[in-house]
Each structure stands twice: as C-alpha cells, then as structure tokens.
C-alpha cells in the first residue's frame, strides 16, 4: 500500500516535470517577440502602436479562446489537448520567422494566442487532479515557475538573437524545440490515467459550465485576476523598451534587466507562497485568498516605484520585490478558485479566469504603445498600483461576506 502511494507521488511529480517543460516553451515562445521590438520596428517599419498591438492581439485571442478550451478540457482528453496545443503553437512560432509585414505578424500572434489557449486550462486541471488539496498550491506553483523561467529565457534569447541580426532564426529555433519536445511529452502522457466523462457526467459538466457565475467568490476572482495581470503584462510588454530608453541599454541587456530580477523574485514567491498557502490551508480554508490580498497590497508600491526609480539598480530591486509578492498571487489564483467550484468544472474555471485576465490585460501592451509619449509608462504604472489596492479591498470583502458560504456549498 505504501509502495503504491510512493509510486503515485513519483508519477505525479513526473507529470509536473513534463508539464513544466511544455509550459516553459509556452512562455518562451510568446515572450521572445517583446525583446525584439526595436529591431522589428526598423526591419518591418512598425509603429509603437502596432508593436503594442502584437501583445494585445495575442492576449485578446488567447482570452476569447480560453473558455472554449476549458469547456473542451472538462469534456474530452486533457492529455490530447496539451500535446496538440504544443505542436500547433510551435508550428506558428516557426511561421513567425517568415513574417514580412505587420499584417502577417499580427495574424500570427492571433494564431499563437488561439493555439496556446488550449494548453493552460487542461494543464492546470491535470496537475490539480493529481494532487490532494493540502499539496495543490505547491504543485500548481511549481508548474507556474516554468512561466518565470520561460519569460526570462525567451526574452533574453529573443533579444540576443535580434541584437545580432537573427530575429527570424530565433523563432525557427524555438519552434523546432517545441516540435521535438512534443514526442517524449506525448509518450509520457500516455501513461497518465485520465477519467473519461460518461454521458451523464458530460451533461453535468455542461450545466456547471454555465453555473460558475452563480458563485460570488468566483465572480470576484474574475474581477481581481484581470487587474493583477494587467500590471504584469504592462511590465512584460514594455519594461524592456522602458529600461532600454531610460538607462541606455542594449537589447539583450535591457531584456535581461527587465525580466531576470522580477522573474527571480517571482520564482521565490511562487515556491514559498505555495508552501505557505498549503500550510495555512490546514488552519483556515480562506488562506489562499488572504495570501493573494497581501500580495496585491505589497505589489502596489513596488509597481509604482519601478516607474519612479532613478537608477537601474533601484528599478531592478523593486522589480524583484514585485516578482516576489506577485508570486504569492500567481501560485494561488487557480487553487483558490478550486475551493468554490465543482471538481468537474476546474478546467472551465481556469478558462474563464484566463478569458477575463487576457481580455483586460490585452489593453496593457496597446495602451503602453499609444500613451508612451503622453502619459508614459511611469504614469500607467502609477494608476495600476492604485488599482491593485482597490482589488485587495475587494478580496477582503469577498472573504468576509461570501467565501465561507461558497466553500461550504462545495465541500
């Protein structure tokens, strides 16, 4: 019996490892383009608004597709969806290297958003299903660290290749790696047991897909999550360019300075936040929501000071602080939603959260491009800090009035 338990734990850990690799490629492929903005602007004659649109179109397409992706993942094979998603977005990444105009590039970013949307709801649900509630935050947080490493790696690699005149080749390399990784990924996932929904279960899943919004706590999470990721994507999209202009850095150095400190902080925040949340969960079931509230209150001054910093070292320091506290939020947003939604609608919950998150955060890269010369990135960061504080207040109201009832209705 103990042997079977140990074997199951090892297999669950191996599942997280394989999912981590694919999730790393997911973010590496999507993030590389932001480090190339200066080169793309010159080579393809793009405006700042068009550059911002590259990020916005990706996020809007991604967000619109996420509810459908979650619905499909709750009804059909999650294993098939994650492998299919990896293969398609890798092919799109390769195609991006052939782009010769703004229209083609924007179209390929939309295709990237659609193909990558299939991955996350199924991946998070597979990971959550393989772990009990008392270790779920750690599992999801560990998986989410791939987002951090992929952002740094993809941003640095894209900036380095673009600086040396090989931005097209960067997309070819990234896409080829994804296609090759899909082979062992598929072979391992064949060993993962997955419950096939019966017709009755499918009917209940159809109903749960539409009843998620009867849960007040879930509705509030759908408001708070987009506010957080708006700030995140404002930094992802424009911080390399902001650092390059403000501190006179090269493309690769700007991409590294904009990503590495923040993502290293996030890595620590994800891991520690997952451990803390799982331990506090044994004391109070609202632990994950309280940790997310603290995250927003601590991130607010950090994101403001990133824009206000007068030196690169101070900007990198507060960016690392933002990453650290932001990791608490990122590692617990999906596990917190699983506390108030039915087991058979977890992928749909992830899909809807990503939908609202991407829909709102999609404006971040676009607004950065449109208002770069007027309000400036500093001004946008200041307003985002204020929004973080308001979101934290909303979470406190949620915990006080709705969470206990919503949790009890499920458990």
Low-confidence stretches: 198-207
Strand content: under 5%
Rounded to the nearest angstrom, the radius of gyration is: 20 Å
What is the total tally of β strands? 0
What share of the residues lie within helices?
over 70%
The helix count comes to 17
What spatial form do the alpha-carbon principal axes imply? globular
Q: How many angstroms does the end-to-end distance come to?
A: 27 Å
Mind summarizing the main beta sheet? none
Task: Find the structural class using helix and strand composition.
Answer: mainly alpha
Mean pLDDT: 86
Order of secondary-structure elements: HHHHHHHHHHHHHHHHH
SSE inventory with pairings:
Blueprint: H1 2-31, H2 37-43, H3 48-75, H4 78-96, H5 102-117, H6 119-129, H7 133-163, H8 167-189, H9 199-211, H10 216-247, H11 251-281, H12 287-308, H13 312-330, H14 333-338, H15 346-361, H16 363-370, H17 376-410
Helix pairs in contact: 1-4, 1-6, 1-7, 1-8, 3-5, 3-6, 3-15, 3-16, 4-5, 4-6, 4-8, 6-15, 7-8, 7-11, 10-11, 10-15, 10-16, 10-17, 11-13, 12-13, 12-17
């Amino acid at each position: 019996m103990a042997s079977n338990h140990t074997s199951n734990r090892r297999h669950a850990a191996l599942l997280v490892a394989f999912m981590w690799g694919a999730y790393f490629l997911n973010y590496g492929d999507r993030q590389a383009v932001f480090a190339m903005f200066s080169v793309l602007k010159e080579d393809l004659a793009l405006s700042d608004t068009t550059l911002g649109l590259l990020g916005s179109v990706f996020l809007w397409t991604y967000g619109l597709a996420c509810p459908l992706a979650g619905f499909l993942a709750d009804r059909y094979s999650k294993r098939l969806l994650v492998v299919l998603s990896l293969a398609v977005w890798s092919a799109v990444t390769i195609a991006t290297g052939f782009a010769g105009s703004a229209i083609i590039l924007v179209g390929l970013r939309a295709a990237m958003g659609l193909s990558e949307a299939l991955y996350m709801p199924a991946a998070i649900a597979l990971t959550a299903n393989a772990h009990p509630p008392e270790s779920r935050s750690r599992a999801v947080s560990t998986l989410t660290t791939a987002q951090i490493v992929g952002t740094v790696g993809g941003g640095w690699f894209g900036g380095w290749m673009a600086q040396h005149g090989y931005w097209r080749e960067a997309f070819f390399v990234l896409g080829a790696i994804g296609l090759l990784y899909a082979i062992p990924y598929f072979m391992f996932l064949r060993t993962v047991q997955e419950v096939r929904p019966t017709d009755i279960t499918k009917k209940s899943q159809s109903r749960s897909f539409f009843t998620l919004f009867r849960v007040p706590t879930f509705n509030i999470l759908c408001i708070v999550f987009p506010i957080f990721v708006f700030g995140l994507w404002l930094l992802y999209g424009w911080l390399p360019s902001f650092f390059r202009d403000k501190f006179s850095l090269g493309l690769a150095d700007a991409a590294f300075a904009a990503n590495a400190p923040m993502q290293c902080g996030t890595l620590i925040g994800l891991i520690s936040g997952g451990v803390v949340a799982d331990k506090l969960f044994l004391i109070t079931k609202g632990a994950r929501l309280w940790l997310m509230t603290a995250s927003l209150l601590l991130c607010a001054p950090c994101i403001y000071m990133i824009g206000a910093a007068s030196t690169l070292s101070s900007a990198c320091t507060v960016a690392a602080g933002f990453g650290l506290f932001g990791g608490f939020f990122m590692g617990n947003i999906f596990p917190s939603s699983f506390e108030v939604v039915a087991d058979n609608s977890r992928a749909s919950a992830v899909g809807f959260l990503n939908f609202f998150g991407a829909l709102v955060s999609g404006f971040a890269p676009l607004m950065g491009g449109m208002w770069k010369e007027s309000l400036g990135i500093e001004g946008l960061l200041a307003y985002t800090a204020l929004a973080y504080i308001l979101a934290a207040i909303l979470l406190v109201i949620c915990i006080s009035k709705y969470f206990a009832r919503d949790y009890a209705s499920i458990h």
